[in-house]
Input
Amino acid sequence: MTTKRKRNATDDDSDDEFQPDGSGDESSSSDSDDERSPKRRRLNDSDSASGSSDDDESIEDDMEEDEKLAAEEAAATLVDTSGRSRLVIPNPLFISQMRYLAGPAYVEFTDNAGQPTGRGGQHSTATLGPGAVVNINSNAQSTTSLPVLGVIRGKYPARGFKAGHLLNAMFGGSAGQPNITALTNNANGQQNTFDNRVKTAVEAVKKVYEGLNGLAIDVRALGYGIGVTVTVSDATWGPAVPENLIATDMNCHAVVVGAPDVDLLFARKYPNVQGRPDRWKTVLKDLKKLIADVAGLTAQANAAGAITNN
Output
């Protein structure tokens, strides 16, 4: 977090609910203008002697201080002064850039000669990192990625067929044919249940990264995320076109990867009691709850992972 000094203001150091980005943990002491700027105090004491030149120099001091504060805000690291020790914390913006820990990878249906059959995607997989949720709205009605969709819709207009992503677009899933399959409106709704649970789990994973980062623990190689695998069945609605291009079902599966032991990470970072941040016990407790929530959400996603395409 960026700590900015305020004139004649005080902040309460309350033990609010833990916020992974560090909010609620800040404390600051009030400093008078004279305490912050001895030079200005000397100038004020000699106002009668120096006249208007004192005002000019005071304005210059204010400008220098404002420039210094602006430079501090633009720094690459954030300084947390809420603890007993002064922690240098990496700017958490890098966490949002950690989209994938592995993948994504896409496999489409091919014939014996290795050529695409037109069915679209067969298998998509990725290990989602803390920055995987991008909230991209995809046009699931488009036939650009799956040309056969027009024929399917023409024969089955009541089924509301969509160009469904195997790996959801909100996780950065490709709109290319290897990641697209023909899904009924009903099947698409079933998959949304799975994807929304995974989305919430990934958002909780991100909070764990931010919380550990707020303790000045290096999370760049943490390896904590959600593995997602989506497989379209070989079985189809029938042997002829377009039925042979419509899968009967699809399976979505999620797994927690690299869940951290926060007690161990903290003990390695702070082997001695001296120098530990304030409220560290509360922080670790909240992180453990988030990790448990991720496991529960992943289980809920898998409970909705068997998709019937009817």
